[in-house]
Recover the amino acids of this structure.
């Protein structure tokens, strides 16, 4: 067995988590915040048992929940700037958190598989930020919504999830799920169902929140379009997070210290280091061809491309 680079290089941290599964970390954050807020709501009901349920609920919103949500008036946001971050993890109902986390998992699993673990959380945050912008613009500029300015708040991960769904679909629209069903269902069809269900809410009085989701969709398209051109909009977030967690870490590697692989394995004194040649088997070639049919040739690793080239040469 050959020596793999990550056996000796330090594992890189990504925003809000290890580099093993950022999607899982993101879902956990959402669920934990929901459970904490819901626990506070239960306490409100228990301590105000003599009041009407609706009155207790409204008291909870005004006393607690609004402080983690984005206010409709931009000026009020100056008094709770943390809401720019906290609102995207704050959900008000069980069905809202279940729905958002289901779609986040469905699209995020594919996106993380195709692009790695360091894209999904920055994309989610970008989408939520774009959602704030469109929410504030819509509720402050659309006459029908302006009467809601005094009391309305924006919360939830809808815009972030929408960004993930659109980005995943733009990246690989022909990706198929449930392949046993007549070849599978294209991802773009699933996305259309999700978008139609989400924007069906434009007919009700809270449709300013769906304008926020539109902002997330636009940001998802921009993020993945830039990524396909080689520019990672989330790189600075991951670098900032890595710097923060290493700031007081005594075990962090010294900048002057070379990686172990360069000190030990690549000390060749001018000789070209050994290059591993992958074994070519019919099963491995079939797996690579299946990957091309599902995700495209551009998603192959250099090792997989080398296997195809070698298989082609052997067949001649």
């Amino acid at each position: 067995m050959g020596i793999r680079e990550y056996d000796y290089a330090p594992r890189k941290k990504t925003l809000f988590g290890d580099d093993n599964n950022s999607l899982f970390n993101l879902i956990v954050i959402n669920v934990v915040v929901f459970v904490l807020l819901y626990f506070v709501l239960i306490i409100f009901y228990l301590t105000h048992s003599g009041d009407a349920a609706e009155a207790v609920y409204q008291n909870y919103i005004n006393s607690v929940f609004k402080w983690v949500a984005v206010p409709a008036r931009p000026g009020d946001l100056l008094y709770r700037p943390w809401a720019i971050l906290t609102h995207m993890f704050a959900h008000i109902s069980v069905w809202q958190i279940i729905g958002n986390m289901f779609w986040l998992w469905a699209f995020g699993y594919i996106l993380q598989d195709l692009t790695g673990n360091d894209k999904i959380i920055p994309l989610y945050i970008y989408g939520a930020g774009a959602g704030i912008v469109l929410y504030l613009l819509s509720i402050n500029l659309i006459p029908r919504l302006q009467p809601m300015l005094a009391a309305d708040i924006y919360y939830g991960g809808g815009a972030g999830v929408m960004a993930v769904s659109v980005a995943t679909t733009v990246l690989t629209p022909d990706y198929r799920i449930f392949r046993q069903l007549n070849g599978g269902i294209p991802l773009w069809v699933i996305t259309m169902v999700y978008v139609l269900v989400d924007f069906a809410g434009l007919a009700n009085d809270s449709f300013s929140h769906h304008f926020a989701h539109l902002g997330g969709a636009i940001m998802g398209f921009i993020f993945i379009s830039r990524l396909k051109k080689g520019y990672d909009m989330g790189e600075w977030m991951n670098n900032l997070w890595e710097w923060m967690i290493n700031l007081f870490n005594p075990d962090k590697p010294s900048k002057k210290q070379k990686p172990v692989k360069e000190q030990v394995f690549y000390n060749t004194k001018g000789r070209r280091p050994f290059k591993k040649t992958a074994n070519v088997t019919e099963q491995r070639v079939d797996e690579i061809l299946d990957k091309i049919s599902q995700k495209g040739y551009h998603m192959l690793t250099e090792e997989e491309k080398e296997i195809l080239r070698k298989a082609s040469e052997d067949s001649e």
